[in-house]
Amino acid sequence: MVETHDHFVARLSKLGKKHAKMTHGYVTRVGRDGLITVTPRRRRRGFPFKLLLMFALGFLGLKTFMVASVGPVTYNERLAKLEKGTVVEQAGAKVLAIDPVTEKLSAMTGPVLR
């Protein structure tokens, strides 16, 4: 009798854990025998490389658009003003400096914008 109750409690706790996992999403599949099984969706743990890549591409696109719209001479003049500012502004000027990739992309998109 005790053994049966222990099995029941173990099954109940296992179902509780599965239900808690399913609050984050689940996947339903139909097997070859027609049985529908519901399993919790795997949670991704780790560094979000896609997010980092999207951020970098967005930042590169922003820099390209700014250089193409105002021109490299005016852009460098504005960066020179930032270089004379506070430490945060100087760091921003270093990050926003024109690199070869930005220069090539802005040369390609510049005629389209004008």
Describe the protein in words:
By secondary structure, the protein is mainly alpha-helical. It has 2 domains: 2-40, no CATH class; 49-113, no CATH class. It contains 5 helices and 2 strands, in the order H-E-E-H-H-H-H. It has a two-stranded antiparallel sheet. The longest helix is centred in the middle third of the chain and has 22 residues, at 49-70. It is elongated, with a radius of gyration of 28 Å.
Characteristic terms for this protein:
single chain, 114 residues, mainly alpha, two-stranded antiparallel ribbon, 69% helix, elongated
N-to-C CA distance: 84 Å
Structural class: mainly alpha
Mean pLDDT: 88
Helical content stands at 55-70%
What is the tally of helical segments? 5
Alpha-carbon Rg, integer: 28 Å
Portion in strands: 5-15%
Question: Helix and strand string, N-terminal first?
Answer: HEEHHHH
Strand order of the largest sheet: 1-2
Shape call: elongated
Supply the number of structural domains: 2
Largest sheet: 2 strands, antiparallel
Low-confidence stretches: none
According to DSSP, the number of beta strands is 2
